[in-house]
Amino acid sequence: MKKWxxxxxxxxxxxxxxxxxxxxxxxxxxxxVEGSLPDVDENDENTTEPAEEEEVVEDGFLPVTVNLKxxxxxSVGTVELIEEEESLRIVVDAENLPEGTHGFHFHEKGVCxxxxxxxxxxxxxxxxxxxxxxxxxxxxxxxxxxLEVGPxxxxxxxxxxxxxxxxxxxxxxxxxxxxxxxxxxxxxxDGKTQPSGNSGDRIACGVVE
Length: 209
Ligand SMILES: [Cu+2]
Prior knowledge:
By secondary structure, the protein is of the alpha+beta class. It contains three helices and nine strands; from the N terminus they run H-H-H-E-E-E-E-E-E-E-E-E. Strands 5-8-9-1-2-3-7 form a seven-stranded antiparallel β-sheet, with no helix packed on it. A two-stranded antiparallel sheet has the order 4-6. It is globular and about 40 Å long. Bound molecules: copper (II) ion. Copper (II) ion (CU) binds next to strand 5 and strand 8.
């Protein structure tokens, strides 16, 4: 009988010790969780507040408005460029354009001389890539989706581009030496023909400044 009592006592002690050590262990992960919770909250704040750009603006990254003009020098609208946390937001609001699909790119010089806008140079291409989203070695940083102009000659579109920035000093900055410009072409960009997607004449231009 005594053996049983001893055995029971020993087992009880073992259980108590095990329980104690569990309790001792628990606070560690609990502390880690507590420690990581604020991080999660901070991340949530950063990702869920779309108004963050306005704080970014306060830090000096002002949105840039590009004024588009056609070959006759008439204004045909604006493109707003907004630096976001992980991308550049591009908001197009244009009018008085020919209905249809039009190639749309950032070009490598900040010069818009009507009527042909050849002064804007080739596509903005800081990485030396090939042109076009369809090209296996593409695309130019300046390549953008085509614009779809409606029957009323207007277009309102919004793009988010990850490989462009307004931040000076970056390789893919739109404020590199010599500047950049936005060009709307007469034809659609086929996404593969070099060097500019066979998108034809340049019908509107605006300097990024
Ligand atoms: Cu172009």
